[in-house]
Amino acid sequence: xxxxxxxxxxxxxxxxxxxxxxxxxxxxxxxxxxxxxxxxxxxxxxxxxxxxxxxxxxxxxxxxxxxxxxxxxxxxxxxxxxxxxxxxxxxxxxxxxxxxxxxxxxxxxxxxxxxxxxxxxxxxxxxxxxxxxxxxxxxxxxxxxxxxxxxxxxxxxxxxxxxxxxxxxxxxxxxxxxxxxxxxxxxxxxxxxxxxxxxxxxxxxxxxxxxxxxxxxxxxxxxxxxxxxxxxxxxxxxxxxxxx
Length: 244
What we know:
By secondary structure, this protein is mostly helical. The chain has one domain (about 5-235). The protein contains 9 helices and 2 strands. The protein has helices at about 5-25, 30-55, 70-90, 110-125, 130-150, 155-180, 185-190, 210-220, 225-230, and strands at about 95-100, 230-235. It has a two-stranded antiparallel ribbon with strand order 1-2. Helix 5 runs parallel beside helix 8 (about 210-220).
């Protein structure tokens, strides 16, 4: 089955939205924060394309927005925001324990996260010409490092979320090329690293850079909610040590 290139990006994002909806329906007690973080990350989509369109990729946009990017970018940002923030909680967390001490709440860190990403892109990409996919990933890893230094108890959440986001992205790309055999032609036509030293392809023509980005996003965004509100995760018994 052939799919018009113009709608490939939109269809891929609808698949991400299905995963988002699965998480949303399962996490009844976390739906409001999931919506909030998803809406925040939706804004990152078009903004990030200021750099990505220049040196990383140029997808076909069927629903363009004024300025740069399209509805597809916002849809991806929205979906990956909820997936990154709460997929781990869906599978491995039984309950969240909220701290009532205000000094442990760090909502301001969202601004720090955005600032780190901006500085990373401006310095590494604009100044040193490092591809923006690597610059943004480095920024996310740096933000995750700060959070985990302050809250080392969130390391399982961060690592688990990183693996889940990367696995979700790989699965969607894999399925896309399974049901649409010419999908890899779409990827190579829009991916500016194709044919370069950085353009390493994995199984089913999945770019390694996409997996690096997914791991970095999950590492930073996975523990974000717990870090912002000072919550502790109570994991399922199978993942906790029992005392004799």
